[in-house]
Amino acid sequence: MIHYYVKAEDDAGGDVRSATLPSDLNGFDVFPGDPGYDPYLWPSAFSVRGLPTMHSASPGDQPGILFYDDAESNVAATEWTTSLANLGFEEGVHYDLYHTNSASSGVSNGLGARATVPQIAGYQTLLYHLGSLSAYGLNTFDQDNDKSDDIALLEAWLAWAVRTCWPQATTWCSTWS
Question: 32, CA 20 to 30 Å: which among 41, 59, 74, 84?
Answer without folding.
Answer: 59
